Amino acid sequence: MQRCGWVKLDEPLYVEYHDKEWGKPVYDDQKLFEMICLEGAQAGLSWWTILQKREGYREAFDDFNAEKIVQYTDEKLAELKEDTRIVRNRLKIASVVTNAQAYLHMQEQHGSFSNYIWQFVDHQPMINQWKTLAEVPVTTVISDQMSKQLKKDGFKFVGSTICYSFMQAVGMVNDHVQDCLCYEGEANE
To answer: Which partner for 176 in 17, 53, 78, 180 could form a disulfide, CB atoms 3.0-4.6 Å apart?
Structure first.
């Protein structure tokens, strides 16, 4: 057995992320919020760049505690703009605050962010059966719908490609290819 072709096999951090996180269902609100913010930070960059900075993001953004983030001042945002532990893009930094506000609102409306976000896949992970990495889409009808709704609900940096990447990361879809050791399709059940 092997791993999905996008994994940097010479990078233990990447291998661990692939083997232990990617495609595994996440229902914890704070972890889901962290991942939607990190996926937004990835826009125009590689996931490898963000993965290497993930601990820095956690430190810089109070472990993605939305209640704290919505209290950030202009001074705090200016400090973050100079923080080399994260991607220092003003719009991406500001989007974390905007997303924290939307996240808290969705928690209030839906009882949890998990209930809100998992509704897009009827609260069940979708297990795909791709033979090759080339078959794996970058967007789907569902990611298009999610993107549209997230934007309507006030989220930023949530285009369809970002949404699909998020869905893969938090296990809403499992896109491990069939010859990957993490594949959990019908053949392995």
So the answer is: 180
